[in-house]
Amino acid sequence: MNEAGSGDGLRLESFQRPCYQAAMQYTRDSKGSVEVDGDIYEWEIRRQPQPKSGGKWEGMAVTLCLVDFKREAIIQFPPPLRPNGRPDVEKQRVNVDAVRNAVVSAMEAGWNPTSRGKPMVFDVDADGH
Question: What is the pTM for the complete model shown?
Answer without folding.
Answer: 0.76
